[in-house]
């Protein structure tokens, strides 16, 4: 049996005048991407070292003349359009580009601080979105097999990665609430719209499973931390999986664990007022769907009859209500 040819790789990097690196484009559909990226970065380091000192000095002088404000380096302070179409790996602290505003507790679980921040802009730029900074300890090893920008509607968008000292800082989009906040309500979360209870649970389930399919089949890893803290919702009814950066770093292949983890969440969603919810109390269709989750075949599970009633629009009231009743003054950064 002939061995399949290795997938095409393309890593293009550009060095900016202040020694930062911006990944402009990439196309790599298998493991080993970070290794390829680091090799490309090393190539730029070698080229930089071979460049005559007088040329570097002249280049720096020209760059200094053209500098103006925080956006003097178009590769370091990216535009919104650049954030939407490329993933940046920058060798500097994140606070050189983003201004920390407050600590956040509803943007996915994290071992360290989760910081809500805003991109530093010129005065004539329109107001930008808020971003979430999450920091992870970083060690380059063989376990880091792939890093690329998730382009799926049900995964929290990863905009940039900062490498500074022994820490990777990931820049994500901001979401409105986490599933954990819904569970912390003192009342049945489905009581606001009881007639659409199954439609709401089915919508959450369908979107989470779609995200997991992408993680498993396109990124070829498992999420590894499917929990109520890492399932985020927006006021448009969109559900997304958070902390994909950590999943990429760990790159665990045990995809079946993700399905079993969500199976437990599904039971808790269906019986939110139970201290110890059990699948034995589920209705017949929901019970059969729970069994399908345990089987671990996501494509087959997405075709299950239970998900036919999914309606993302029914989640809007739930999200807005949760935002109102669970608001806590943020901790200043």
UniProtKB/TrEMBL annotation:
<dbReference type="Pfam" id="PF00069">
    <property type="entry name" value="Pkinase"/>
</dbReference>
<comment type="function">
    <text>Component of the EKC/KEOPS complex that is required for the formation of a threonylcarbamoyl group on adenosine at position 37 (t(6)A37) in tRNAs that read codons beginning with adenine. The complex is probably involved in the transfer of the threonylcarbamoyl moiety of threonylcarbamoyl-AMP (TC-AMP) to the N6 group of A37. BUD32 has ATPase activity in the context of the EKC/KEOPS complex and likely plays a supporting role to the catalytic subunit KAE1. The EKC/KEOPS complex also promotes both telomere uncapping and telomere elongation.</text>
</comment>
<dbReference type="GO" id="GO:0051403">
    <property type="term" value="P:stress-activated MAPK cascade"/>
</dbReference>
<dbReference type="InterPro" id="IPR008266">
    <property type="entry name" value="Tyr_kinase_AS"/>
</dbReference>
<keyword id="KW-0418">Kinase</keyword>
<dbReference type="GO" id="GO:0004674">
    <property type="term" value="F:protein serine/threonine kinase activity"/>
</dbReference>
<dbReference type="InterPro" id="IPR011009">
    <property type="entry name" value="Kinase-like_dom_sf"/>
</dbReference>
<keyword id="KW-0067">ATP-binding</keyword>
<feature type="domain" description="Protein kinase">
    <location>
        <begin position="83"/>
        <end position="333"/>
    </location>
</feature>
<dbReference type="InterPro" id="IPR000719">
    <property type="entry name" value="Prot_kinase_dom"/>
</dbReference>
<keyword id="KW-0547">Nucleotide-binding</keyword>
<comment type="subunit">
    <text>Component of the EKC/KEOPS complex composed of at least BUD32, CGI121, GON7, KAE1 and PCC1; the whole complex dimerizes.</text>
</comment>
<dbReference type="GO" id="GO:0004708">
    <property type="term" value="F:MAP kinase kinase activity"/>
</dbReference>
<protein>
    <recommendedName>
        <fullName>EKC/KEOPS complex subunit BUD32</fullName>
        <ecNumber>2.7.11.1</ecNumber>
        <ecNumber>2.7.12.2</ecNumber>
    </recommendedName>
</protein>
<dbReference type="GO" id="GO:0005524">
    <property type="term" value="F:ATP binding"/>
</dbReference>
<keyword id="KW-0808">Transferase</keyword>
<comment type="similarity">
    <text>Belongs to the protein kinase superfamily. STE Ser/Thr protein kinase family. MAP kinase kinase subfamily.</text>
</comment>
């Amino acid at each position: 049996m002939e061995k399949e040819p290795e997938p095409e790789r393309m890593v293009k990097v550009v060095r900016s005048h202040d020694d930062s690196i911006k990944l402009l484009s990439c196309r790599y559909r298998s493991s080993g991407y970070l290794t390829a990226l680091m090799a490309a970065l090393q190539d730029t380091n070698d080229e930089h070292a071979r460049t005559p000192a007088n040329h570097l000095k002249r280049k720096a002088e020209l760059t200094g003349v053209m500098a103006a404000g925080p956006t003097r380096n178009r590769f370091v302070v990216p535009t919104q359009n650049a954030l939407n179409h490329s993933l940046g790996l920058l060798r500097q602290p994140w606070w050189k580009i983003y201004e920390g505003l407050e600590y956040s507790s509803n943007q996915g679980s994290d071992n360290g601080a989760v910081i809500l921040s805003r991109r530093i802009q010129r005065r004539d730029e329109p107001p930008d979105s808020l971003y979430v900074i999450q920091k992870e300890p970083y060690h380059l090893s063989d376990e880091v097999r792939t890093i690329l920008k998730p382009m799926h509607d049900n995964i929290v968008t990863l905009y940039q990665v900062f490498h500074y000292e022994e820490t990777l800082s990931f820049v994500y989009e901001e979401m409105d609430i986490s599933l954990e906040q819904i569970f912390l309500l003192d009342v049945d979360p489905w009581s606001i719209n009881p007639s659409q209870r199954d439609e709401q649970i089915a919508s959450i389930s369908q979107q989470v499973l779609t995200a997991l399919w992408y993680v498993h089949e396109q990124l070829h890893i498992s999420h590894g931390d499917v929990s109520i803290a890492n399932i985020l919702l927006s006021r448009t009814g969109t559900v997304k999986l958070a902390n994909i950066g950590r999943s990429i770093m760990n790159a665990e292949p045990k995809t079946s664990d993700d399905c079993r983890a969500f199976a437990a969440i599904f039971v808790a969603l269906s019986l939110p007022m139970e201290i110890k919810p059990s699948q034995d109390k589920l209705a017949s269709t929901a019970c059969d769907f729970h069994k399908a989750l345990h089987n671990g075949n996501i494509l087959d599970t997405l075709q299950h009859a239970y998900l036919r009633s999914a309606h993302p629009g029914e989640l809007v009231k739930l999200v807005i209500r949760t935002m109102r009743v669970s608001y806590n003054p943020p901790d200043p950064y």
